[in-house]
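Need tokens for this chain, all 133 residues.
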Amino acid sequence: MEVNPYLNFDGMCAEAFRFYAEHLGGVVDSVMTFGELPDSGGVDPAWADRVLHASMSLGGVRLMGSDVQGAESMRSSYLSLGLDTAEDVERVFAVLSDGGDVFMPVQETFFASRFAQLRDRFGVNWMLVHQRS
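Here are the structure tokens for all 133 residues:
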């Protein structure tokens, strides 16, 4: 069995996946647009370039996503990134929080040398953690 997060975006899936690949080291494996459907005649032309399905490998996990009209950002679920160093947490926090909302800035906690929570500019919630040694 395999569990894979599937994220819905309202028109920003391709941009979000490129961003995660560039800044988090992910590799985008596939992207299919609505315009590439075998019978795309019924697709609204405004949605032809939007993502029907995308897949990327990110930190040993398959992250998938698509564009869904009216999709709302995540509210009570997070993607948790376990990072190798405290410096990695600081770097990733700076990138992901740019244009997003910070719920908990990077700080030391009883369980981690560095921990933070935020929602990025694409509406995805993240927890960043470097475990206490």
